[in-house]
Request: fold
Amino acid sequence: MSGNLVVLPTPDALAEHVASWLTERARSSSGAFRLVLSGGHTPAPLYARLASSPWRDRFPWHRTEFYWGDERCVPGDDPESNSGMARRQLLAHVPVAPDHVHPIPGEMAPPGAAAAYEQMLRDVYGAPALDPARPLFDVTLLGLGDDGHTASLFPGTEALAERARWVTTARPEGKTPRVTLTYPALESSRCVAFLVAGESKTSILRRVRGGASDAPAARLRPVGEYVWFVDRAAAGEEAER
Ligand code: 6PG
Reply:
């Protein structure tokens, strides 16, 4: 499994390190910095850290555009909403222009939301096919589920086979219906960065980094750089290597 592994001692150290890394990466870019945010719980401390000193004052908010890797099909103010979490932790506290924030419309019916988001991404990209030499995004943040899912690409679902569309729907067992970017869109990034924390992820992290083909996260093939930011609890014995 490719991808550099960076192990931080605690979740707070993970948030601090990634806030610094992301800020420097954004500052060293030129033009629009297209950032894909992930959902769930793990990135919340990172978003809160970016909204506070010194990163808040260093980050190039004026030229950063925000996208999401997936969204639950709920209104933006629902506690389950990924864009709602990012707004509470980050976007409500930093000077970002509203037209630079592109949430997946969770309040829409899933098929319509997926089609609308895909069209928006195609308009942003400006070409019908994704060129590996010209990635759609600058940084794509992703999380890892206990079952090896990432974004809303869940094991055994049709979305895993989708290579034409950039956005599709997902109805994982027992979970809220979702809209998710597909592998081609998630892979079209200058850098894919996974954030993984907690000992509950130790086993799945080891399996995914070992290339377990039944784990959707293990099937990602980014066109650009690939890094895993994990805390020591999730890294387990890999931290000792
Ligand atoms: C979501 C995320 C999902 C998440 C993983 C890990 O909408 O839930 O996109 O892919 O990153 O499930 O979630 P935790 O960080 O809460 O463990």
Notes: The pocket of 6-phosphogluconic acid is lined by residues 38-42, 69-70, 82, 143-145, 149-152 (CB under 6 Å).
